[in-house]
Amino acid sequence: MPMRPSSAHRARPLAWLRERLRAARSDSDLEDLRTQLDGDPRAGARALEASIRGRLEAARRERRRLAELLALRDRLLARGVRGIAGIDEVGVGPLAGPVVAAAVILPIQVELTGLDDSKRVRPALRRTLAEEIRRIALGVGIGEVSVSEIDQVGIYQAALEAMRRAVASLARTTVVGHLLVDARTVPGVDLPQTSIVKGDQKDASIAAASIVAKVHRDAHMALLGRRHPAYGFEQHMGYGTAAHMEALDRYGPCPVHRRSFAPVERAERRFAAGSSARA
C-alpha cells in the first residue's frame, strides 16, 4: 500500500515548496528544504528533492573549483606571505581606447561563485562579480595607459606600464608582499613575482583582477561611445569588428583610435584617399 503524505507535508503545498526553492540562497536553505521533503511520496516533491540535490552538488563542485584557483595563494599564505596581489591587463587587442590593468588582493576567505577569466564570464555576471570583488577585496588598484602613450611606446610596453601603475595604485592603500601575474613580469616593481601562463584561468586573484579591469575598461569604452557615437565603442569595446571597420572607412579614425595599429593606419589612408577623390 503506497505511503501517504504526513500532515506536515499536506500543510505544505508544492507551489509553496517551489517558491521556497526559488528563494533559497545558501546550502543551509537547501538542506532545510530537503529535510521538509524527506519521506514525501508526491511526484512533485521527489522532483523538487532531485533539483535540490543537483544544486547542492553544483555548489560543492564550485567550491572545489574555487579552492583549486586559490591553491597557490594559500600555499604562499601558509609560508607567511601577506599582501598577495593578482595582476592582469585587458585591452591589448582593440584598435581604440586605453589598455587597463588591475591589481587585487583577495581576503583569506573567498566566496565568489562563477569567478573565472573575464573572457569566459557573461557580461551581467562579470559586472556583479566586479562589484563583489571591490566590496570584499583587501585592496584594488587600477592602472591605465592612454592611446597617445600606446602610440609612443607600443602596446606591449604599454600593457606592462599599465600593470606597474596598477601595483603602484594598490601599494598606496595597502601593503603588497607578492605579485601573481598573468604570463608577465611587472617591470619597475621591487617585489617577488610569480608569472603564471593563462593565470586568469588558473588563479583566483588573477581572475579577480581580470574581471575588475575588464568591467572598468568597458565602462570607459561606453563613455567613449557617447562621446564618439559614430563608432559604436559601447558595442565592440574598440575591437576590430566588421561594424567598427566600416565606421573607420566611412568616418576615418577619431582621437581615441590607436594610430600605431596597422588597421587604423590603413583605414586613415583609405579615408584620406576617398576624401581627396570626393573633393
Give a nutshell description of this structure.
With 279 residues, this protein is α/β, with parallel strands linked by helices. Helix content is 56%, strand content 11%.
Q: Could you please describe the fold and organization of this structure?
A:
The chain is of the alpha/beta class and 279 residues long. The protein folds into 3 domains: 7-69; 71-211, 2-Layer Sandwich (Nucleotidyltransferase, domain 5), CATH 3.30.420.10; 224-278, no CATH class. The protein is 56% helix and 11% strand. The chain is built from 13 helices and 5 strands. It has a 5-stranded mixed sheet with strand order 3-2-1-4-5. Strand 1 and strand 2 form a beta hairpin. Helix 6 (123-136) crosses helix 10 and helix 12 (242-251) packs across helix 13 (262-278). The radius of gyration is 25 Å and the shape is flat.
Do you know the CATH topology of the largest domain? Nucleotidyltransferase, domain 5
Order of helices and strands: HHHHHEEHEHHEEHHHHH
CATH class of the largest domain: Alpha Beta
Q: Which overall shape is indicated by the principal axes computed on the Cα atoms?
A: flat
Q: What is the radius of gyration computed over CA atoms, rounded to a whole number of angstroms?
A: 25 Å
Q: What is the terminal-to-terminal distance?
A: 93 Å
Strand content: 5-15%
Domain count: the total is 3
Shape-level CATH architecture of the largest domain: 2-Layer Sandwich
How are the strands of the biggest sheet laid out side by side?
3-2-1-4-5
Largest sheet: 5 strands, mixed
Poorly predicted segments? 1-9
Overall mean pLDDT score?
A: 92
Proportion in helices: 55-70%
Supply the number of helical segments: 13
- Indicate the structural class: alpha/beta
Assembly type of the chains comes to single chain
CATH homologous superfamily of the largest domain - what is it?
Answer: Ribonuclease H-like superfamily/Ribonuclease H
Count of DSSP strands: 5
